# Entry
Amino acid sequence: MATKILTFEGTVSWAKVFPENRDMYQWNDQTMKFDKPSETDGRYSVNLEMSPDDYRELKKTGSVAAKNSKISENGFDEVKFSRPHERKDRNGDVMEWASGPPKVTMDGKEYRLEDGVIGNGSKCKVTVSVYDTKYSPGTRLESIEILDLEAYADPTEDEPAPF
# Structure
C-alpha cells in the first residue's frame, strides 16, 4: 500500500500538539507508568472521537492506531494519533518530514500554544498518514484544523488519565 492521507472530523481530547506541551515520557514496563524518558525527545498526540464510518475507513487500512482504540464516554471509537518530535533513520539522522509538531490551524491561520490550549471537547479536522512498515501499517499525525475551540479547563483529580 502506498501512503494514504486521511482526514477525519470529530471531537478531540488531550491535545498535546505544541513543542511546549508534548509528552516527554513513554511507557516504562518496569514501573508500569509513563515515566521513561522519551527516545524521540517527546511525542505530539491527540485523541479523536471518530464516527463509525470514519473508524471503519481507518480500520480498513490496517492502522495500528485503530487497533489500539477504545470506546469514549460518548460511545464513539476514540483513537490516539501521534507524531514523534525526532524520528531518526538507521544512520541516526533526523527525518524532518516525519518529525516535529503537526501543523495546527484555525480560521486558515497558524495556531500556537500562546493562542490557547486546545481544550477537551474541541471540534477539529485531524489529518493522518497511514504508511507501510516492516510489521504493520503505521499511522502518523500530520495536522489539526480547529473548527470549534473549547476553552481549556484544568483537570481535576477525578478526571481519568488519557490512554
User: Anything to note?
Assistant: The first strand starts at residue 4 and ends at 16.
